Structures are given as C-alpha cells and as structure tokens.
C-alpha cells in the first residue's frame, strides 16, 4: 500500500465543485481527451488509440462505466508523488495535445460520482513497468495506491486485455446524471445511442485513426452489444450546385498572429432523416446536433481537432438570431492550441481577446448566405431549362417555364410542351422525399383537370433517390389519372445537368 497526499483539498470542495453544470458526455469527454493525449509514441508517431467504454445497467438503474485505453499509463511517480495527477492544476512535464488546465480528470470524477456520492477506481498499467496499480476514490487529502494482480486489470476489458499499457477507470454513475446525455431520451439504449452521436461528433477528426468502442448491456438483456463510434463530420451538403467555401482567417493581437480555418456552406439535412440509419448506420439519424434551425445549426467550434460545441450562432451573429432564412447555414471553425478553452472544455474561453477578435472578423466578413438552398434550386432550375431548350430546340410558349395550376394554388417548377407531349419537372437539390413524388402527382392532376390532357411524363430531379422514394414512384405509376391514363413518373439525377 502506498499512501500519498493530494493538494487543494477542503471539506466541502467536491460537493460544490460538482454543482457546475456539465452533462455526462462532457465528463466522459474529459477522460477520452486524456486517453488521446497520452497515446504511446513510436519513432515520433503516435500509435493509434483504442478506447473501450463499457456501460452496464445495474438493477438499481445506475450505470457501471468502465473506460480503458492503451495509453502510456500513469507512472507510479505521477500517481503517488508530491506532484500527482489528482492535484488540481497538475502539469505533466510533457503536455499531450489536449492536456490544458490540469482539471479534467478531477472534474470528470467529481461529476460522474455526483460529488463522490458513489465511488471510482483508477488503474494504471504504466508503459515499461510490470506492475499495475489501483487508486480508489474519493479524491481527498489522504489517498492510497496499491499494486494489483493482472487479473484485476483485465477484468471488464475486452480487446484491451492484450494492451501492454494503459489506464482503466471504473465508476458507478447515477441514473439521473447518465440521463443528462439527452433529456428527450428515456431508455438506456437510446441514451447510449445519443452518447454515440455526441462522441462521434466531438472526436470525428480523431476517429479516422483511433477507435472508440462502446459495449453495453441493459438490465433486461442477457447479452452485451458492441458498437464502434463512427466519425460524424460536420455535414456539409456538396453537389454540383452547392459548394462549401474554405478560408484561412488571420487575426493579430499584441504583435502575435493567430490563424483559424473557416469552412462555410449548407447543411446536408439527410443526416436527420430516418433513411440515414440504413445508409450511415448507428447512431444515425442525428437527433441532437445539426438539426437545421439556427439554434442548433450554425458553427461547429473545433479546438485542436476536437469539437467543443456545435450550433454556435448567437455568439457571432446576435442580431440575426430570429432569422429563419439562416436555418440551413452550416460552418466549421477550427483553431489551434493558442486558443484557450473554459476549464470544463465545453466552450472557448469567453474572456479571450483573440476569440473576441476572431468572432468580430467572422461576423463582419463572412455573413452566412441566406436561403442557400432556395438560391441553388433556382439556379439548378435555370440550368435544366437551358439544357431542355438546347436539346429540343423549343421556342416561344413551348419553352420550359414555371406554370401555375389549381387556380394558382400550386406552381410547377418546370413545364414544357415538346410536340404534343406535356412534361413536368420537380427540382430538388438534395435527396428526394416521398412528399416530392406526391407534389408531382398534384401538378399532374392540376394539368389534367385544367386542360383535359394527361402529361407524358413527370420527372423528379434530385441528388439522391432513397429506396422509399422509388417505392412511392413504383406505386403511383401503377395508378391511373382522372382521364384513365397511367401516371408516369421518372427520376433524374442533378448531376445529369452539370
Ligand atoms: N488515460 C490516461 N492515460 C495516461 N495519462 C493520463 C490519463 N488520464 C490522465 N492522465 C494524466 O493525468 C494528468 C491529469 O489529467 P487532467 O485531465 O486532470 O488534466 P490535464 O489533462 O492535464 O488538463 P485538462 O484540465 O485540460 O484536462 C494528465 O495531464 C495526464 O498526465
Ligand atoms: Mg485532461
């Protein structure tokens, strides 16, 4: 048994410390930040991190969380020495990428245990050492570490049983705190799914080279489920008519130059649609991030490759908050180590002068484009009209145009007559929806009821045609219009008009 002391302790400190509001995912992120920051380096490169987080729902509703990694571990000196990792403000000699304040671990343990009402164990298997150590919480003035058997180290681990070094933290989390992942989710499985969304968004840049694996078992299930958290990049819509724009922004403060990378564009709304589950897999469709209203869309704020926050809008454009025409605007702002974060890593330091300057520069020079989607659909429609005119040599009133039907109650995107054949086109710049198919049907019926002639064809132009849209089209094409002719709806890709 090795006894050691921590600094900065006072009677009521932890209880009040836990009153700061950070949700479960941010406490977990402090631990993931640490794992990624302590990757083993090999000839100047990092070995990929493997992070395993298991969630076991206990009978009392609490969650037993075990999170482990293949990092370099914490040396006995850093575990039990005068300068140990449990001290607030601890500074390692070599700071990893995301070791900033010397607070994260303590903050996370205080939050995850609801101010040490429950407890935790931290195990370290330091690199180049044959010994494994365990420290039991709570964090207090007098603590102790003990050497343990390898069998205790591998307990609760799956793939990481084989790891040569690392850290494992085991903690019981109360249900109420676990539920802070997403207020609208009520079951254990959906909370895990939403946690997958948070973590996939936060670490998307890291997840290309490193792995975060969730394993979970609910109290009513006999089996563990394993999910690899996928990278969830900022979902910009990019196709022939929509681009994202990338800029390097420079600011100067006190004689120093600071740079930020800024990407702006349009939200790819398909990440919210039910079909994305089939296309992109768990944990899609997204339910928390990138929801396409300016309260939630806006900018993604990334520091050192890690997303702190999504949906930043008010801080940069306070006077545009109520304007719904910015709903689909999406941006990503990446800054480096020279920008400091708040000590709970949920935001950039609001008092930072350089963040203020950067915000002002973006607000002044990079006004988000309004109604990006509408603009693009208009330009796509013009392209389509031009291409039809060229192919069919149409003139005068036969030239493709917009046409009102149902006494002006609906308007067809593109309508034209080629010889005696009437053609209708509905234009969408993103993925087609079932609703768009029925819109064509409404135009079709409008035409038949007005001029007593069935159109030859209705074309739905879109960027992508999910299976359910194709199914709706097949269904409609088996039906007849009021004149007894079959509906004839076809699809065409946006790319065909580039
Ligand atoms: N999983 C881990 N593997 C190896 N070392 C770790 C791990 N977790 C924590 N440490 C060590 O413990 C130290 C203290 O962690 P803590 O999160 O409290 O502070 P920090 O990461 O330095 O700063 P921040 O407040 O920005 O998180 C780290 O600097 C690191 O040296
Ligand atoms: Mg940390």
3D architecture notes:
This protein has 3 domains: 2-228, Heat Shock Protein 90; 245-371, Ribosomal Protein S5, domain 2 (2-Layer Sandwich); 374-496, Trna Endonuclease, Chain: A, domain 1. Helix content is 25%, strand content 27%. Strand 10 (211-217) and strand 11 (225-228) form a beta hairpin. It starts with a strand and ends in a 5-residue tail after the last strand. With 498 residues, the protein is an alpha+beta fold. The mean pLDDT is 91. It is built from 12 helices and 21 strands. The strands form 4 sheets. It has a 9-stranded mixed beta sheet. A 5-stranded mixed beta sheet has the order 12-13-16-14-15, with helices on one face. The protein binds adenosine-5'-triphosphate (ATP) and magnesium ion. Adenosine-5'-triphosphate is lined by residues 30, 33-35, 38, 69, 71-74, 85, 90, 92, 99-106, 167.
Helicity, in percent? Answer: 25-40%
Here the CATH topology of the largest domain equals Heat Shock Protein 90
Largest sheet, spatial ordering of strands? 1-8-7-6-9-5-4-10-11
Helix count equals 12
Number of domains: 3
Name of the level-1 CATH class of the largest domain: Alpha Beta
CATH architecture descriptor name of the largest domain: 2-Layer Sandwich
Instruction: Report how far the terminal alpha carbons are from each other.
Output: 72 Å
Biggest sheet: strands, sense, closure?
9 strands, mixed
Kindly state the mean pLDDT as a whole number? 91
Compute the number of strand runs: 21
User: Ligands in the structure?
Assistant: adenosine-5'-triphosphate, magnesium ion
